[in-house]
Amino acid sequence: MSDPTHEVICPCCETKLTLDAGDGTILLHERPKRRGKEWDEVVEAGEAKQEAAERRFQQNMERELNADEILEKKFREALKRADKSDTPPPRIFDLD
Q: 9-18: per-residue pLDDT in tens?
């Protein structure tokens, strides 16, 4: 008389498990063969990564080119605030 077994398929990885009905030990496991990627899929993925990298590079370049203008505006605003202030800056000798 043969030992009773159960076959179970894992929902995550689709591995086929053969279990002993008596004590529940795994007698055999068969993993499915993974399908390799097709050449076209690999090329498209590489091109998509390249395009994303180029977009990020262009965005960073534009931000750097505009950084001088932004800093210049901030400096002018700081000068305007400094001109409006009538109080002189504190002298380090007066802090004692």
A: 988 888 999 9
